[in-house]
């Protein structure tokens, strides 16, 4: 593994604690800050830049940018209709740049699973074990708020972790 690919993986690994922070703040305060989204954008673009230079192909970066643009344009009308928050739209647009074009399929499948679990828990809070947590989720349901940043962040964390594990496994097997 080249030094550039290792640096690219390091930038992706640095995004994991930031994604945890985004998920926690979205869950507790229903807010995703622009600062966190911009930091994720910088980490994603840096990681894509390093891997593109190392591989010698800009295909992954172009595919990620196109996916981010399509997601932003596709979700923007839902924000104008007040169906999703602006932070969710921005986070969703930045995430393809973080996971890369090669991780979009894994991210999409994980996002589908995590979004279904989130919707199930918000609509059926009696499935939750703790009373206080159950009351909080019922409060979210009464307000009509679903913290969509949580499944986005969880899917991105799992995708990045999978990419890092896959790269490390390839490195170990190549020796």
Number of helices: 7
| Main beta-sheet strand count, sense and barrel state | none
| End-to-end C-alpha gap | 10 Å
Q: For the residues shown, what is the average pLDDT?
A: 88
Structural class: mainly alpha
Please compute the radius of gyration using only Cα atoms.
17 Å
Low-pLDDT segments: none
Number of strands: 0
Can you tell me about this structure?
The chain is mainly α and 175 residues long. The protein is 82% helix and 0% strand. It is built from 7 helices and no strands. Helix 3 runs antiparallel to helix 4. The longest helix is centred in the first third of the chain and has 27 residues. It is globular and about 55 Å long. The mean pLDDT is 88.
Task: Write the topology of this structure.
Elements: H1 3-29, H2 34-55, H3 59-80, H4 86-99, H5 104-123, H6 131-143, H7 149-174
Helix pairs in contact: 1-2, 1-7, 2-4, 3-4, 4-7, 5-7
Brief synopsis:
This protein is mainly alpha-helical. It has helices spanning 3-29, 34-55, 59-80, 86-99, 104-123, 131-143, 149-174.
Give descriptors for this structure:
mainly alpha, 175 residues
